[in-house]
Amino acid sequence: MFIVSSPELVIAQVKAGIIGSFPALNARPASQLDDWLARITDETQGCAAPYAVNLIVHKSNTRLEQDLAVLARWKVPLVITSLGAKAEVNAAVHGWGGVVLHDVIDDFFAHKAIDKGADGLIAVAAGAGGHAGRQSPFALVQEIRRWFDGPLALSGAIANGGAVLAAQAMGADFAYIGSPWIATPEAQASDTYKQAIVDGHAADIVNSSLFTGVHGNYLRASIVAAGLDPDNLPEGERSAMDFGSGGNTAAKAWKDIWGSGQGIGAVDAIEPVATRVATLERDYCAALERLALR
Ligand SMILES: Cc1cc2nc3c(=O)[nH]c(=O)nc-3n(C[C@H](O)[C@H](O)[C@H](O)COP(=O)(O)O)c2cc1C
């Protein structure tokens, strides 16, 4: 997650047995990326789960080539690409034996991503934090699974163990969870942002294109605090999407306006990553048992 995901968060996730990821742009200045990868590699030695790095493959990301070279040096095992699939990036990652999952919001982009050489997909459905999709997860997974049998993650408001199981039942291989990790001590977010995730519910999430030029989901309270009317936001300009020079323009927008998905009603406390993972696992097993008894 832009700004929020730090090495602390990723290391805690991998140590707890799940895949942890962060956007390369979070390491700022760009020279920090090497240190972050060194630390993550060192501290997750021997863990079962790999870590992942997210590359914003949008034309305005002037760091892409430089960041890709750093990823190559560390042979990053899993790369998540978003905002435009690029065959050269996929080929480069395959060159060091890495795997690429590409973020998609519909079946059209899913085809495009696989045609360009991505190994798998992350279906970003309606209700997701950040640049959310607009389609129901049922519709999205169903359409992708008609023709694609490779690795598929599903994202969008997944925040409890039963929802992880539901994602699998629907046909996804992985549940991809964002917003609940904001309410952890390991996340790089202000205490007020973390508390807003704990206090928030689906009704507190506003969908708008104003802040980055692409539709995304945000916490209503942060929009009000910025002096804006969440119920009357103008449309954003797609050309305003700017990840140049380390995403600084976008960073300003995201620092005060808090991104969040609709699933945060499941988040009751700011708690360590390991505790949240244990709860997810317990609830996943309970859901499985409940279904088996039917
Ligand atoms: C604050 C925030 C920042 C995000 N930044 C990124 C990003 O930089 N790159 C990306 O691919 N997805 C980003 N996302 C989307 C997440 O990767 C993921 O798809 C989403 O959070 C899943 O939905 P959920 O939050 O409802 O669990 C962001 C999400 C949030 C909440």
Automatic annotation (TrEMBL):
Protein name: Nitronate monooxygenase family protein
Domain of life: Bacteria
SUPFAM superfamilies for the chain: Inosine monophosphate dehydrogenase (IMPDH) (SSF51412)
Organism: Novosphingobium organovorum
Family: Belongs to the nitronate monooxygenase family. NMO class I subfamily.
Gene3D superfamilies, A to Z: Aldolase class I
Keywords: Flavoprotein, FMN, Monooxygenase, Oxidoreductase
CDD domains tied to this protein: NPD_like
GO molecular function: monooxygenase activity
InterPro entries: Aldolase_TIM, NMO
